[in-house]
């Protein structure tokens, strides 16, 4: 009975009867409006609509209680807004203003919390993007893919950011991910193409070796097989281990076949003949070295042409015994390198000097050439540094051994170029500053 009295008092406080219509008094910005009709008695009608208000208030109480208990309060924002929208049209008699204030307060709290969370989300996603973009220079594809996998999971678990930033953040993150996988795909495509080219080159070298393994042209074939061995080293590219081993076994078998036969052939000769043969080869090669070393004093076009002829002649000379073979070869290679480097230098200087008029003084000519050589050395060292950096980044796996060997060979070539250019600087000093 007391509850009914309270409901009736509440209904008369916020509503009234006019004719046979039940009206809600104006509140906030809402005007008075009809909420229903009197079907029995006026008190019954007023209590009915007061009870309807209580039912609505119970919904509000329940929602606010769930918001207080929940850790994810942001998920209730739309429900709170929906109930606020109903206040202006809900048919009931009661203190809708108080309900509106309570819902508004909850809305503001949720929005503040959402704003803070989005700021935290923004910082988290910015860090994720930074870590993803840091992979731009990585070539450790396996480790990079694992990092991106973890970053993607972290991205998914991180809540939203402000709407105006959402697209930009998503685009930056996806761009960083796509950049990594695009580079990985290109690297793998290049590696596959290199592998295919390497496979065909190895097969070609095997066929050439097998065609020579039964030859009796001991000197000629020895030089050819050594050249094929050098070409094998220079092929580069990485192959699956079993494939690489099978190819190498065939290649080595052909060479072993020939050199085993050569060994038998040499053994069948007298030691004196063998010594004479080796000594003669050494003498011939030393003569080629001596002539190659003197080429720098000849006109460059003649020197280059003769150096190429000497290289051809070198290949026709038979083997030399022991460590002397490497020494005489290094001396010959250095002499030829000096000719070719000097020719390139003089060509470079001619392109930058006037075609007519007197030559500059000797000191100036020397300075020009030394400056050019130092620039060339700088560029060579830059190229060498790039190769060494790539070598350092190469993972230590059997599949990369051929590629590693190629890089090491190129690094040694640049070391020789730099050494030759430094030797030329001293040579030019003697030539121009006597």
Describe the protein in words:
This protein has 434 residues and is mainly alpha-helical. The chain has 4 domains: 119 residues, no CATH class; 68 residues; 77 residues, no CATH class; 77 residues. It contains 13 helices and 3 strands. It has a 3-stranded antiparallel beta sheet. α9 runs antiparallel to α10. It is elongated, with a radius of gyration of 45 Å. The model has no long low-confidence stretch (mean pLDDT 87).
List the SSEs and their pairings:
Layout: H1 2-14, E1 15-18, E2 21-24, E3 33-37, H2 42-69, H3 77-87, H4 96-133, H5 141-157, H6 163-212, H7 218-234, H8 241-267, H9 271-294, H10 300-316, H11 322-351, H12 362-393, H13 401-432
Antiparallel strand pairs: 1-2, 2-3
Helix pairs in contact: 1-2, 2-4, 3-4, 4-5, 4-6, 5-6, 6-7, 6-8, 9-10, 9-11, 10-11, 11-12, 11-13, 12-13
InterPro entries: DUF349
Protein name: DUF349 domain-containing protein
Pfam family, one: DUF349
Give a nutshell description of this structure.
The chain has 434 residues and is mainly alpha-helical. It has helices at 2-14, 42-69, 77-87, 96-133, 141-157, 163-212, 218-234, 241-267, 271-294, 300-316, 322-351, 362-393, 401-432, and strands at residues 15-18, 21-24, 33-37.
User: Poorly predicted ranges (pLDDT <50, ≥5 residues)?
Assistant: none
Strand content: under 5%
The radius of gyration is: 45 Å
Number of DSSP helical runs? 13
Distance between the termini: 129 Å
Q: What's the story with the biggest beta sheet? A: 3 strands, antiparallel
If you average the pLDDT, what whole number results? 87
Characterize the overall form: elongated
Number of domains: 4
| Structural class label | mainly alpha
Q: Please write the string of helix (H) and strand (E) elements.
A: HEEEHHHHHHHHHHHH
Please give the order of strands in the largest beta sheet: 1-2-3
| Strands, total number | 3
Helix content: over 70%
């Amino acid at each position: 009975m007391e509850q009914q009295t309270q409901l009736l008092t509440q209904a008369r406080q916020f509503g009234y009867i006019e004719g046979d219509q039940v009206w809600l008094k104006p509140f906030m910005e809402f005007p008075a409006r009809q909420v229903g009709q009197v079907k029995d008695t006026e008190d019954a009608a007023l209590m009915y609509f007061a009870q309807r208000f209580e039912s609505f208030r119970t919904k509000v109480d329940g929602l606010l209680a769930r918001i207080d208990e929940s850790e994810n309060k942001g998920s209730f924002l739309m429900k709170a807004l929906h109930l606020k929208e109903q206040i202006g049209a809900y048919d009931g008699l009661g203190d809708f203003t108080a309900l509106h204030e309570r819902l508004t307060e909850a809305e503001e709290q949720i929005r503040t919390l959402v704003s803070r969370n989005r700021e935290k989300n923004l910082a988290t996603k910015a860090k994720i993007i930074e870590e993803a973009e840091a992979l731009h220079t990585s070539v450790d594809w396996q480790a990079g893919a694992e990092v991106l996998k973890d970053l993607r999971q972290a991205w998914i678990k991180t809540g939203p950011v402000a709407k105006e930033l959402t697209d930009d953040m998503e685009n930056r993150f996806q761009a960083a991910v796509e950049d990594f996988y695009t580079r990985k795909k290109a690297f793998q495509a290049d590696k596959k193409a290199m592998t295919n080219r390497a496979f065909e080159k190895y097969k070609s070298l095997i066929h050439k070796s097998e065609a020579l393994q039964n030859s009796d042209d001991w000197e000629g074939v020895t030089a050819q097989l050594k050249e094929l061995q050098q070409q094998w080293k220079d092929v580069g590219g990485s192959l699956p281990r079993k494939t690489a081993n099978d190819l190498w076994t065939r290649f080595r078998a052909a060479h072993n076949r020939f050199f085993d036969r050569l060994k038998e052939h040499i053994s069948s000769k007298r030691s004196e003949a063998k010594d004479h043969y080796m000594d003669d080869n050494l003498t011939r090669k030393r003569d080629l070295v001596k002539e190659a070393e003197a080429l720098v004093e000849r006109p460059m076009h003649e020197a280059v042409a003769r150096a190429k002829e000497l290289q051809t002649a070198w290949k026709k000379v038979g083997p030399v015994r022991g460590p002397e073979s490497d020494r005489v070869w290094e001396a010959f290679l250095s002499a030829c390198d000096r000719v070719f480097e000097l020719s390139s230098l003089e060509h470079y200087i001619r392109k930058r000097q006037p075609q007519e008029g007197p030559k500059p003084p000797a000191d100036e000519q020397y300075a020009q050439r030394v400056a050019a050589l130092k620039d060339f050395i700088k560029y060579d060292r830059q190229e060498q540094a790039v190769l060494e950096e790539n070598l350092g980044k190469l993972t230590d796996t059997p599949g990369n051994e051929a590629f590693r060997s190629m890089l090491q060979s190129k690094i040694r070539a640049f070391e020789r170029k730099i050494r030759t250019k430094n030797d030329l600087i001293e040579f030019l000093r003697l030539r121009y500053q006597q």
